[in-house]
Every structure is written in structure tokens, then in C-alpha cells.
Specification:
single chain; 180 residues; mainly alpha; 6 helices; 0% strand; elongated
Length: 180
């Protein structure tokens, strides 16, 4: 390989290499990492917001002060023990949350949209399993249903965005082909 030379004809120094960091592939990796991390955190935030809104549907379920129920989660579950409507609403809101959280994440990342949406589902499932293990007030149908809800719904969220982006890309290719 020929040695790279700068505009003066001499070899680049360490200092000039540092100045050109913005042109390097390292910046692309850093920016991609930051974008993907932001996308996952935003997707989880959206999912938690939707779960919170889903639990606030019935005013009888609000046994906590503040907007989010997560600070007093143990007490909330203890108060809702035997109330199957609450756990059905929790399942439904978790399914909707994993779909919309997956859509949010998949919309922001550039590559592997479905994989990142499923990552949102995996993180939500991990949190749900911790919830079931540490707080024992969940009915059996919820414990089974949570496994059947989160992954498929987050996958659907990623697939929705993938289909939309593929259709848009195909449309742009046809427009470019018609121009030439």
C-alpha cells in the first residue's frame, strides 16, 4: 500500500491525523452507537409512558401519588391482588407499549430495525420477569401472558417500520430510474 501523504507531500503527523478525526470511520461508529443508544432509551421511555397511561385508565387503580406507579409498585400490586381487570389492562398496555416502543426505536436506528425493536421487547420482558420474581402478586394468566405478549408485539413494531422504509426506498428507486 502506498503511504498516505498530506497536501504538502510529507507524511501526516499525529496531530494532523487527530484533526481529521471527523473524516474517519471512528466517528461513524461513535455516532451510530450514540444514535442507537438514544433510540433504545427513547423506545423504553415511550413504552414506560404508555404503560403508565394504561394503568391510569381506571381511577380506582391509582393508589399512588405522582404520575408514574413505578415508585410504589409493590404497594400497587398488593392493592390490586385479585383484581384481574387490572392485570388484563397491564397486559394490554404492555403489548401496545412494546409495539410503539419498538416502532420508536426502529424509526431512529439506521440498520437492523427489527433487531432493535426486539431488543426493546427483550428489555421489557426482562423487567417483567424481575417484576414477577420480586413482587409475587401476579395471577397465573398474567405470568403466562406476558411471555406471549411482549416479543411478538415488539417484533410487529419493528416490522411495521421496516415495511414502511422498504416501500419508501423502492418508491425512490423507481423515481430515480424514471429520471434517467
Amino acid at each position: 500500500l502506498p503511504r498516505q501523504r498530506n497536501h504538502t507531500g510529507s507524511r501526516p503527523t499525529e496531530r494532523s491525523k487527530c484533526r481529521n478525526f471527523h473524516d474517519s470511520p471512528h466517528q461513524n461508529l461513535v455516532m451510530s452507537f450514540l444514535r442507537n443508544t438514544f433510540a433504545v432509551l427513547l423506545g423504553l421511555g415511550v413504552a414506560m409512558l404508555i404503560i403508565t397511561i394504561g394503568l391510569r385508565i381506571n381511577s380506582e387503580w391509582i393508589t399512588y401519588s405522582g404520575f408514574t406507579p413505578f415508585e410504589k409498585w409493590s404497594r400497587l400490586l398488593e392493592d390490586m391482588r385479585g383484581n384481574s381487570c387490572f392485570f388484563v389492562a397491564l397486559l394490554v398496555s404492555t403489548g401496545i407499549a412494546s409495539t410503539i416502543g419498538g416502532i420508536t426505536t426502529a424509526f431512529i436506528v439506521k440498520k437492523a430495525k427489527v433487531a432493535y425493536a426486539i431488543l426493546i421487547g427483550f428489555i421489557l420482558l426482562f423487567l417483567a420477569v424481575l417484576d414477577i420474581v420480586f413482587f409475587g402478586y401476579h395471577p397465573t394468566f398474567y405470568q403466562i401472558g406476558i411471555f406471549l405478549t411482549i416479543f411478538p408485539f415488539s417484533w410487529v413494531g419493528g416490522k411495521i417500520i421496516e415495511v414502511i422504509f422498504n416501500q419508501r426506498e423502492e418508491k425512490n428507486r423507481k423515481i430515480q430510474a424514471n429520471k434517467h
